[in-house]
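# step 3/5: fold
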Amino acid sequence: MPLRSLKCVGILGAFTATLRVSAFEAADILAIPWNDFVFRPQLSMQSTFTDNVFYGNDSVTLPSIFRPLIISGNTIQFGPITTNNVVLRQQESDLITTVTPGLQVQYGAPAGNKVNLSGQFDEVTYLQHRSDNTTQSHMAIGTIFDSGAFSFRGNDRLNFLSSLLGGGSGYGALGVLVNARTWDDTYNFRLDLSDKTSLYATAVHTDVDYDPGTAILDFNTLMGTVGAAYSPAAKLALTTEGSYGQTAVAGNSAVREVGPHSQFMGVNIGAKGEFTPKIEGSVKAGLEFRDFPGLADTHSTLSPVFDLAITYNVTLKTIVTLDYSRRTDVSSNYGAQSLSADSFTLTVQESLGPTGKWILTGRTTGYLREFSSVQLPVPILATDARGNLLFDQIGRAVYSSVSGDYARSETIISFGIQVSYQPRPWLTASISYDFDQYTSRLKDPRVASLHPFIDYVDNRATFRIAIGF
């Protein structure tokens, strides 16, 4: 472990020991009140061992075809055609340590109207690949306001991210950090018309901006939703809603074609609340239409959409949750390419022992994405009239360009298990194991031969300790 990380572990240990032996309570320094404010400092450290830090695959190669130059005296001639298979992205392991100090500030009454502000800073250290050491920062604002029949909930998040991307990101450069700024806002408004009926509206803004030169498209989405709810029972509501939004796409690199903006609209019906004494959650089903104005109708999609979030309280110690979603979206890899995405997560949480301080959690997640057809250039080996390969003046194979279909499907399967221990309300430690498998299938064999998306398997083991309320 790097010296810097060892120092942080020592600081965490000394800090927790001080809280144990001191006469004051942890709340005295971890939840500091001042007038209408409460300040909550936080600190966490986690170390993750991964056997595939770059999301690589040693078996995925691309042929390098050339004719070596042979020098004999004053004569220079080309040798025989030679092919070397080059691994596109190697599979390598590493130990990644992340130290995160943070601060939460709450203004207002704990059970009333309030504003929560939080900030965190990540220092990420790689044991083997030191050149990839980086930092990240996160900021968030949460607002709760209730006044009579009217209520408002707001969440704003700003992140400055720096990480290694692989798999479905389409960014295949080995060992290159990708920097991005993400900005998300969600505002929920609700007006109760009576004890049984209410109107609500939601506004969502999402913006992702990668550094210039990154071979991934920037995008931002604006979406508005209006709906109505009727409660036939005290803990159950039936809903109907409609939504409209737009997604704008911008490019960072000449190798990515920038597509036009898209617009989407949808309607759905659903139910939320307590379905039985042990089952609660929400269910929605509807249709969503997305098109790219100015392009042919072949780029338009009409798709069923679903949202399911169910919690089953099996016993006082066992909780099962199931989340499923089906949505349409736009590709971050190629312009004018839409996609449909199915995702599910099944989580089982078991409280161990009589105190509830030990918790065992198991999780299984799956993603299935279908990307629409989009025609883009594909490099192929150039030949002469007799079908012989062409080479340039230094013996490298010459390529020409044809049109290819970049339609594809991709699947991500993930599962994990975690054991956490919380001896104090302000102290949590956990150890976990996670497995990810990414596979893709391109419909055009010429595009598939380029391996623009690399299948991979990743195993991770993580230890984490966190201090703070």
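# step 4/5: annotate
The chain is about 5% helix and 65% strand.
# step 5/5: archive (pending)
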